[in-house]
């Protein structure tokens, strides 16, 4: 990296997605010196558009980030590409070691690195991810409405996911895959919503003319489907915080790991805030951005008080 860095920033924002840029925008408008370090791997990159975001519904993810970067830069914020390898305490602030050896110092840190979606090892799923293979009925459900939808059972939230998709289509089937068939109340709910249950392990995805056409079971049977919903395991991207004693923990839902923070975004380490999907696994773009704006306001207030106390 050849960019010129200041010796120290008021705030280092780690992650340049919707959450990180929203936090940086709030801080820039408060006349704070801000550096955003972005790894360039937005979670929603495969999607055609961001949905459910008021006044910006359908905006391509890359375009949303382009506009956000321009707005942050307009208030003096700096955005650089790169990865943060580790963060450590440095006097009354922090030092972040970037991949490649450069060190950046800041008085406060906002973590907005999001999460990684871990898909089950079914051949073909990853290649269709963000297209006909999706996870969120609110983010992409409208786009597959009235189609034949398969829900691949992967964990405790799969029945709930199937019920949500049943509102969007009359042809929803839950594929039990490597999990036991639903019983008791779960089975009654699925039947009441008109969701069929398909037993047997899913061995792959059928594609024709670059479109998903079905799911292939281990016995060779192909069940026609036009879209597949998968509850991924979601893992917070926060390994670089281990040196501060901050590590992700299992989410109560069983959906994956997240970083603990209070409603303001403050973590257990004074001076470090976190927002977006690294904290809230189910947050959509708007919610992630709003949480980061809240955290940024708290960070600014914390710095104001620190300066006033001398």
UniProtKB/TrEMBL annotation:
It holds the Pfam family Pyr_redox_2. The keyword Protease does not apply. Keywords: Flavoprotein, Oxidoreductase. The keyword Metal-binding does not apply. One of its GO terms (molecular function) is thioredoxin-disulfide reductase (NADPH) activity. It comes from the Bacteria. It catalyses: [thioredoxin]-dithiol + NADP(+) = [thioredoxin]-disulfide + NADPH + H(+). Residues 9-289 form the FAD/NAD(P)-binding domain. This is Thioredoxin reductase. It comes from Mangrovactinospora gilvigrisea. The lineage of its organism: Bacteria, Bacillati, Actinomycetota, Actinomycetes, Kitasatosporales.
């Amino acid at each position: 990296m050849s960019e010129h860095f200041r010796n120290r920033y008021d705030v280092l924002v780690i992650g340049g997605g919707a959450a990180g840029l929203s936090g940086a925008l709030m801080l820039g408008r408060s006349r704070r010196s801000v550096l955003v370090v972005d790894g360039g791997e937005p979670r929603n990159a495969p999607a055609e558009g961001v949905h459910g975001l008021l006044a910006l519904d359908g905006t391509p993810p890359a375009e949303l980030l382009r506009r956000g970067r321009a707005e942050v830069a307009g208030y003096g914020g700096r955005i650089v590409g790169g990865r943060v390898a580790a963060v450590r305490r440095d006097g009354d602030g922090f030092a972040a070691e970037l991949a490649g050896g450069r060190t950046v110092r800041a008085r406060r840190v906002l973590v907005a690195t999001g999460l990684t979606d871990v898909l089950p090892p079914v051949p073909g799923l990853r290649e269709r991810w963000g297209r006909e293979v999706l996870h969120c009925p609110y983010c992409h459900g409208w786009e597959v409405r009235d189609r034949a939808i398969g829900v691949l059972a992967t964990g405790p939230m799969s029945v709930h996911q199937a019920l949500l998709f049943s509102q969007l289509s009359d042809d929803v089937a839950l594929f039990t895959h490597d999990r036991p068939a639903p019983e008791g109340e779960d089975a009654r709910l699925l039947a009441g919503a008109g969701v069929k249950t398909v037993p047997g392990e899913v061995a792959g995805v059928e594609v024709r003319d670059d479109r998903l056409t079905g799911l292939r079971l281990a016995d060779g049977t192909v069940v026609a489907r036009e879209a597949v919903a998968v509850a991924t395991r979601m893992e917070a991207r926060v390994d670089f915080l281990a040196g501060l004693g901050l590590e992700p923990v299992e989410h109560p839902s069983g959906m994956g790991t997240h970083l603990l923070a209070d409603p303001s975004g403050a973590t257990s380490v004074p001076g470090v805030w976190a927002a977006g999907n690294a904290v809230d696994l189910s947050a959509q773009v708007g919610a992630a951005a709003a949480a980061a704006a809240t955290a940024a306001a708290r960070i600014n207030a914390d710095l104001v008080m620190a300066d006033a106390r001398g």
